[in-house]
Design goal:
Blueprint lengths: L2 H9 L54 E8 L5 H12 L2 E4 H10 L6 H9 L6 H17 L13 E6 L5 H10 L5 E6 L2 H12 L9 H24 L3 E5 L4 H21 L26
Parallel strand pairs: 1-3, 1-4, 2-3, 4-5
The chain binds adenosine monophosphate.
Amino acid sequence: MTVIDKVKSAFTSDSPETTTTSTQSNATPSHTEEKNVPSHPKESNAKSVPETAVLSDKAVFDQNKVTVIFVLGGPGAGKGTQCEKLVNDYKFKHLSAGDLLREERNRPGSTYGELITEYIREGKIVPQEVTIKLLENAMSSTLASPPNTTNEWLNGKGRFLIDGFPRKMDQALKFDESVVKSSFVLFFSTNENILLERLLERGKTSGRDDDNKESIVKRFRTFVETSMPVVDYYRKLGKVVEIDSSPPIDEVYEKVKIEIDQRLNSSSTQTSNTTQSTSTTNASNDAAPILAPAI
Ligand code: AMP
C-alpha cells in the first residue's frame, strides 16, 4: 500500500481513487501548470501585494546584513515547530510562506485571494510573483520595525527563517536574484508514514482547508515532484543541512541547535565564506555569509 493509498483510506473507507503519484524527483508534474498572475488584476483597496507583483531584477537586501535560512521538508515534517524554537533562542524572524499566503487570501480586497485559495486547495505552488512579493514585503516591514533590539537586528541587520520556501526551482532562483541570496537550507527529512500520521493528527484541530484527504494527496505529490528537486539543487551546491525529524521534537531540536551553533560560531570567527563540514552538509564557497556578523 503506497502512502497515498494510506492517506485516502485514513480519511474514508471509500475505495482508492485513481490518483497516482511518482517517486521520481525529476518527473514532470502534470498538475503544476500555473495560472499566470493577472497582468491587469482588478482594483484592490488594501495592498499587501502590489497589483502587478513585479519583482526586482537585482537583490533588494544586502546579503552582508540580511541573513536568510530556508526551511524545507514535506508537509508535517515539523518545520514550523522547530522554527518557533529557533526564534526564541536565536532571535530569528520566522516567515512562513504558507501563513503569508493564507493571510493574503483572507485580506479583504486582495487581488489574489481567489487564486491563492484555489492553489492551496489543490496543493499546488502559488505563482512565484505573489509568494516572493509577500516575503519581500514581510522582510521589509520586519527590518523597518525589528522584532527586538539585540545585535542581530541593529543597523539594518536581520536574520530570517523562511519556512516552506522555495518549493519550486523558479522561486529559488528568483528569490536569490531579486530579494537576497540565501545562506543555506535546513531540510527536515522523515518518512512518509510519519508525515501522514502527523498531518492526520493536526487535521483534527487545524481548521486548515488543505488538511483533508484530497489536498494531502496532492501536497505529498507536489512535494516529491516539485519541491524535492529544489532540495537536490541546493544539495549539489553544498548548502543543505539535513536533519532527521522523525524523533521527538526536543531531540530533533538538539540536533538543529548543534548545526546552527556551528554556523553562528563560524560566522563570528571567519571573515570569508564558511566551509563547515558536518555529517550531512558542507557549505559552499558560493553561499552568502552564514549569518550577518554581530556588532
Ligand atoms: P504550508 O502552510 O507550508 O503547508 O503550505 C500550504 C499551501 O500553501 C501549499 O500547499 C501551497 O499551495 C501554498 N504554498 C506554501 N508555500 C508556498 C510557496 N513557497 N510557493 C507557492 N505556494 C506555496
